[in-house]
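sry for the spam today, last one i promise. struct tokens for design, 799 residues
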């Protein structure tokens, strides 16, 4: 692919070279019809008396206007008189193009003129007096040598002729070659050989050999008349060591066959046919020149296809090609008409406009990009190797990831690390894996959730500050106790603030039943969070070996209290922080009714409108077997409540660390009453063990300190069954205020939707990475399936 980087405008340069008279012209004392006035001016057929020098051998020139001078003045870019040396012509024409060729431009030099006008002499020259082709190559090699340190060049040459409308390779003669146009390469002569001369001397030999293959035949005008158009092309490929680009310049040196008049050249037979083809192709060239000169539009029709010559030279005449036309003329009156026509066409060619564009192969840009990509891939491979070695070094044999537990959480943790989140140098992703705690769902580790540090669900990282918390699976017992102590202090602080708020609101009579309920919940939950020693062995086991905990139903809640006083007494005796003062105006019997109304939408007893609960995405709540008994409604999730919003906006600025409800499961299928709650109640027929598991979080515990607000938090069963408790309804949630107050359950569908979205989104990031690590992808996928919707942080975001 060739790109065009820079352009230059200009016109075709036209120079005229007047050859010296031949010996027989001198002997015949023929009058001159060309007078060189200056380096740029000549006068054709000047008005001056000429002696009648027509001899008997040149009857064909009798019609030449000897007496009647045209006296036409032509101006060209350069005019070389009869005494001009080859080097002078070269230095004032082709040499100026060499730099352009070396910089990736196309250039061409044509020698145009009548037969015997000196075209071949100018272009090829002789061994003693080499012409432009040789001088060009010699200078080209010299320039390349001078630039050797900056750039690296390669030179290729080809030499072909167009004879009788057929293309022949002059350096490797074979059959006629076909010409075609390649959309990327331009004009291509199929089968044309390219050669790489190392020195100018090699090139000179090549030219001599090629010229021997060129079709030449003597005519009356030229004893060595070239019967073909010779095209010598030089390709210069430049490799720039700094810019890493590749530029290819092409120079075409063309020695056209001379137009001839059969009557003058006295051609017959084959020579006559040759002359006809020569003239036809030259006519096509003239038409091309005229069309290019007359081109007004951007895409004029140029009749390149009228001849093989013009087809080959399509990209070497005007346009994107610095072009120099060397018009060779004879000064003798014998070539009066030919000289006149040549000067006219040369003068016409001056009008051809050029728009030179540098040819740069974009391939080299790709190569430079490949180099960068290779370096990037190398770095990535090295990084992956290092991480793999780190995993292998940590873990026991057969467990390359250093996991002591085979639970899904570790697999998830590994998956996240493998997904690149722990990439060195990435501060955000470096820190995130440390925030991971076994039990945190996979979805919380996704890209989006990683960016929202605060989005982790409470309990996933137990810390008073924002410092990282090591996964408990790897955390020593001492550290776990310290973390727990921090949690207790934090919860105690939060509880204190809540109490103050409660008192203020109560004094201002601003408490609503929902708020009361929420404070009650807080009061209920906090003691369990705030450091009560775990009672159930399973709970301790969860802390240290969370992945060995079997999936069991949650235990029953603690004993019920008949009233607030009893509840407060029980809480105080348990050693937990004092509970909230029980609202005296709290009427427990009202709440079931209120709940029923709320679930069906409409208006609450207080007159506020409550949105209708969206049951569609919510799993069916567990039916309670007995009105007196509590079943843990694990489907309740951590959703936002106004209390949290108020606390977040509290002047204390304390972080609202929400307690965590018992672990929820993927399906959010409510857990049936456990044996300790109601041994006679059969468990639901659905696969509880596959859908429920206990949270490692101490807040998941339920026990004696659970304040019996059964009536307050009973919810109507949509199936018409007994009322459902919402004991596990979280107090601190993260959702925005758009969620209706006290609508934790109502927000469950949205939570589920959010979880689904989060899960898919977050998993989308690692998935592509995992694809590279086949050995772990299946494990990760399995993890997602088995623990995809569990407890903490699945869709939790701090807002
Ligand atoms: N500048 C010059 N100085 C000396 N001799 C020249 C010069 N130009 C041409 N000649 C001589 O003129 C004769 C014809 O020149 P040349 O063969 O180059 O003509 P031509 O244009 O190539 O003719 P044709 O088209 O038939 O091939 C040759 O003998 C050549 O040596």
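last one done:
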């Amino acid at each position: 692919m060739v790109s065009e980087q820079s352009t230059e405008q200009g016109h075709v340069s036209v120079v005229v070279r007047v050859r010296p008279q031949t010996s027989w012209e001198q002997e015949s004392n023929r009058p001159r019809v060309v007078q060189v006035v200056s380096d740029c001016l000549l006068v054709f057929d000047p008005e001056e008396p000429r002696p009648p020098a027509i001899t008997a051998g040149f009857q064909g020139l009798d019609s030449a206007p000897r007496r009647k001078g045209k006296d036409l003045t032509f101006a060209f870019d350069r005019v070389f008189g009869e005494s001009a040396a080859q080097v002078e012509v070269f230095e004032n024409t082709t040499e100026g193009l060499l730099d352009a060729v070396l910089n990736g431009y196309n250039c061409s030099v044509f020698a145009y003129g009548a037969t015997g006008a000196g075209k071949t002499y100018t272009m090829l020259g002789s061994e003693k007096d080499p012409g432009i082709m040789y001088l060009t190559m010699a200078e080209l090699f010299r320039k390349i040598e001078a630039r050797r340190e900056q750039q690296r060049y390669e030179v290729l040459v080809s030499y072909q002729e167009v004879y009788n409308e057929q293309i022949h390779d002059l350096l490797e003669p074979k059959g006629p070659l076909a010409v075609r146009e390649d959309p990327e390469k331009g004009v291509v002569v199929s089968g044309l050989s390219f050669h790489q001369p190392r020195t100018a001397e090699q090139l000179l030999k090549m030219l001599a050999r090629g010229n021997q293959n060129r079709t030449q035949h003597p005519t009356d005008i030229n004893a060595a008349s070239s019967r073909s158009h010779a095209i010598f092309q030089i390709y210069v490929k430049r490799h720039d060591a700094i810019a890493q680009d590749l530029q290819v310049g092409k120079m075409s040196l063309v020695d056209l066959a001379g137009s001839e008049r059969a009557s003058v050249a006295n051609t017959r037979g084959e020579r006559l046919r040759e002359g006809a083809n020569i003239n036809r192709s030259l006519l096509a060239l003239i038409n091309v020149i005229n069309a290019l000169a007359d081109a007004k539009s951007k895409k004029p029709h140029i009749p390149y296809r009228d001849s093989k010559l013009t087809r080959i030279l399509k990209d070497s005449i005007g346009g994107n090609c610095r072009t120099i036309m060397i018009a060779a003329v004879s000064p003798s009156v014998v070539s009066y008409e030919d000289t006149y026509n040549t000067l006219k066409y040369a003068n016409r060619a001056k009008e051809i406009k050029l728009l030179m564009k540098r040819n740069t192969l974009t391939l080299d840009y790709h190569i430079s990009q490949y180099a960068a990509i290779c370096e990037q891939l190398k770095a990535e491979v090295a990084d992956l190797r290092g991480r793999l070695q780190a995993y292998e070094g940590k873990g026991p044999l057969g467990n390359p990831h250093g996991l002591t537990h085979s639970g899904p959480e570790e697999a998830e943790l590994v998956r996240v690390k493998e997904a690149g989140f722990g990439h060195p140098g990435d501060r955000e992703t470096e820190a995130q894996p440390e925030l991971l705690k076994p039990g945190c769902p996979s979805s919380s580790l996704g890209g989006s959730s990683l960016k929202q540090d605060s989005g982790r669900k409470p309990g996933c990282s137990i810390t008073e500050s924002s410092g990282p918390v090591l996964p408990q699976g790897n955390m020593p017992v001492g550290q776990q106790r310290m973390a727990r102590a921090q949690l207790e202090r934090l919860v105690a602080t939060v509880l204190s603030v809540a109490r103050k708020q409660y008192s203020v609101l109560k004094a201002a009579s601003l408490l609503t039943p929902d708020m009361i309920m929420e404070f009650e919940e807080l009061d209920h939950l906090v003691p369990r969070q705030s450091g009560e020693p775990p009672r159930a062995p399973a709970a301790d086991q969860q802390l240290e070996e969370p992945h060995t905990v079997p999936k069991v139903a949650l235990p029953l809640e603690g004993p019920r209290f008949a009233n607030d006083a009893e509840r407060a007494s029980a809480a105080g005796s348990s050693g937990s922080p004092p509970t909230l003062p029980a609202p005296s105006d709290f009427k427990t019997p009202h709440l079931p009714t209120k709940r029923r109304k709320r679930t069906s939408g409409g208006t609450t007893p207080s007159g506020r409108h409550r949105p209708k609960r969206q049951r569609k995405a919510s799993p069916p709540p567990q039916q309670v077997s007995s009105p007196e008994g509590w079943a843990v409604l694990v489907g309740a999730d951590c959703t936002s409540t106004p209390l949290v919003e108020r606390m977040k906006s509290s002047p204390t600025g304390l972080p609202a660390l929400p307690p965590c409800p018992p672990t929820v499961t993927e399906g959010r299928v409510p857990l049936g009453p456990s044996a300790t709650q109601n041994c006679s109640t059969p468990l639901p027929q659905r696969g509880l063990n596959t859908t429920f598991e206990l949270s490692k979080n101490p807040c998941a515990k339920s026990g004696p300190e659970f304040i019996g607000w059964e009536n307050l938090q009973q919810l109507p069963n949509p199936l018409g069954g007994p009322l459902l408790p919402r004991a596990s309804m979280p107090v601190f949630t993260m959702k925005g205020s758009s969620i209706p107050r006290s609508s934790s359950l109502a927000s469950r569908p949205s939570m589920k939707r959010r979880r689904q979205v989060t899960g898919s989104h977050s998993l989308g990031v690692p998935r592509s990475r995992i694809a590279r690590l086949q050995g772990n992808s299946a494990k990760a996928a399995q993890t997602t399936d088995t623990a995809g919707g569990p407890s903490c942080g699945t869709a939790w975001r701090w807002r």
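Residues 395-473, 529-562, 566-799 have pLDDT under 50 and may be disordered. ok im logging off now
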